[in-house]
Amino acid sequence: MAQNLTTRARAVSFSLVLLFLTTHLVPLTEAIWLNLPSSGTKCVSEDIQNHVVVLADYYVVVDEVPQPHQTPTVSARVTSPYGNNLHHIENVTHGQFAFTTTESGNYLACFWIDGEHKEGVGATLSLDWRTGIAARDWDSVARKEKIEGVELELLKLEGAVQAIHDNLMYLKDREAEMREVSESTNARVAWYSIMSLGLCILVSVLQLWHLKRYFHKKKLI
């Protein structure tokens, strides 16, 4: 009996640890609202690692518009860290984009109101941006694998653990890159300091030599 209680307590503790790691290390997404100005662009970005699925839905929020044709239309553009165009559409009230990342870095999504809409009136855009495990369709997975209940939850936990592992490895690689850049910068600064000190010593020696030569020429010493 005591052994069963201990095993159950360990299982509960393990579940709590997984829940904590999932909620703190795996980015949970929810829809955000962007207030688009009548002129100008509003952008959002996210630092995403390589080989990650990205899925997003967006639409113009209509708030008591008297006539449907007065609903503003927007344009959207999504670019990769190296400036590659991943999604571009104009004159829409809603849209969707999905892709798998091939580069690590900041992915940028920009939205703006189309020019034909009357000036001075902005718009509100709802954006649901999901990445990694959050972008996975678990209902389709459950139907395909013919699983439900506890098995599905365990599969979700397995995906969360894998996402945590991938995220930690990504952070480790980024930390190594930053450390390498920092060490390289420190080495360059050290060489620059040595060169500056050597140049100062050389200039001082030349000044002393010039003054001594000048005083000898004027027969002051």
Give an overview in words.
Residues 1-31 form the signal peptide. It is a single-pass type I membrane protein. The chain crosses the membrane at residues 189-209. It is found in: Membrane. Residues 41-156 form the GOLD domain. With 221 residues, this protein is of the alpha+beta class. The chain has two domains: 32-136, Sandwich (Jelly Rolls); 146-220. The chain is elongated. Helices cover 45% and strands 27% of the residues. The chain has three helices and eight strands, in the order αββββββββαα. A hairpin with a 5-residue loop joins strand 4 (74-79) and strand 5. The strands form two sheets. It has a four-stranded antiparallel β-sheet with strand order 1-8-3-6, with no helix packed on it. Helix 1 crosses helix 3.
Tally of contiguous helical segments:
3
Order of helices and strands: HEEEEEEEEHH
How far do the termini sit from each other?
104 Å
CATH class of the largest domain: Mainly Beta
Q: At CATH's second level, what is the architecture of the largest domain?
A: Sandwich
Membrane topology: Single-pass type I membrane protein
Family: Belongs to the EMP24/GP25L family.
Pfam families: EMP24_GP25L
Subcellular location: Membrane
Short description:
The chain is of the alpha+beta class and 221 residues long. The chain is built from 3 helices and 8 strands, in the order H-E-E-E-E-E-E-E-E-H-H.
What's the arrangement of secondary structure elements?
Blueprint: H1 2-25, E1 32-36, E2 42-48, E3 53-61, E4 74-79, E5 85-92, E6 94-100, E7 105-113, E8 123-131, H2 138-145, H3 150-217
Helix pairs in contact: 1-3
